[in-house]
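Box S1 | Example of a co-folding query
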Amino acid sequence: MQEVQNYIQTNQQRFLDELLDFLRIPSISADTKYKGDVLKAAEWLSAELTRIGMEGVEIVPTKGHPIVYAEKQVDPSYPTILIYGHYDVQPPDPLDLWHSPPFEPVIKNEKIYARGACDDKGQLYMHVKAVESMIATGEMPCNVKVMFEGEEEVGSENLGHFLKSYKDRLSADVILVSDTSIIANDVPSITTGLRGLSYVEVEVTGPNIDLHSGVYGGAVGNPANILCTMIASLHDENRHITIPGFYDDVEIVSDEERKQMNMAPFNEEEYKKDLDVKDLMGEKGYTTLERTSIRPTMEVNGIWGGYIGEGAKTVLPSKASAKISMRLVPNQDPDKITKLFSDHFKSIAPPSVKVKVTPHHGGQPAVTPTDTIEYQAASKAMEKSFGKAPLPQRSGGSIPIVALFEQVLGVKTVLLGFGLDSDAIHSPNEHYGLFNFYKGIETIPYYFMYYAEMKKS
Ligand code: BES
Ligand code: MN
Ligand code: MN
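Box S1 (continued) | Returned holo structure for manganese (II) ion
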């Protein structure tokens, strides 16, 4: 393993330069204008995988963006690690809030600034470089397969089909994913849970055309006002969600586990200061750490209607809309929650408006066990590279395919992420620490080493 680490040291600068090239490709999966660039990123990756000595490198087309697949069989008696990552990124909007262009990466204060720097190109690339280092030095203690998708940020709709049709080739002992965060650079952690997601769009329609708000206002139901009232009623004064049945299946976390999770280092004053808010707001009876991990939530992600141009226009809009997402916890089923939402939302509409609810993508929550050698190997690898044992921590984010991996492939996932919650993923000025990038490249070969050892004994 020392040779692998030496190789990483020697090639540090080149690894970074390559990542910057990768970040220059605007692989925005949500926007069809960038379809060619998403493909370009897939081609760039596959060329890189071929160059480092991976075998059977393939760009697998899907109905949407392609999946990049490759493998390296070292010895049939070795365990097999399947690496997953996504090379697509979120749209960079709002552009004017970026201090430097999102697809022209710069290094500032020891951080790489670019869309995708952390989520997930930077983290995906740590695996490519770790695998390169193991192949180049001939110290590869596991067989490895990689699958990198280009549709994670739009719901991974075609990945399920790929998993089914490639099921035999994807056989593995464990799936390794770096697409989550650690608590802090001096507080390593391993993600042991992800929330699920139910995402809906609602449209409230009143009169058949926009009206003069002086002539008709006060007499005709205003869809914008009504939408706001309806949304407001979805939480009560304790910030509980009011949809009947919403909490029925929510997993009750034991007092012991809650106590444990609240021992993780967290400074609420600093948290507020970083966000520039005077106070926090959330479900009564739960701490911030609990509200963002073991409790379900509902957030408006976008809301519009009526006149939003310059100046004032006195109009009573015909329609108003919102995008609303609910984060779900273990045992809540996304389809069931979507139906509960839809039925309830329609039932609370006054007869002066019509309501349409359109479901978008959803996803199942996931919890990963800590009493497996898959997890223990990750814990030892982080302890080796950070000099400190990692804490298990549940995350508030969602990676819906983790549940699919278990259902379709029957393989458990280890969430070995290296980002920080403050890396501004999905936001302007997304960044990734050089420390985190290199720490990831250092840790992954240790994972291979410990996993192979533990699997043998
Ligand atoms: N990498 C994130 C998920 C994440 C972020 C997990 C931080 C833990 C900590 C992933 O790319 C993502 O953004 N997921 C989406 C859901 C997806 C279906 C669009 C999310 O969580 O909103
Ligand atoms: Mn991601
Ligand atoms: Mn993301």
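The chain has two domains: 2-194+366-456, 196-250+296-363. The CA atoms of residues 54 and 72 lie 5 Å apart.
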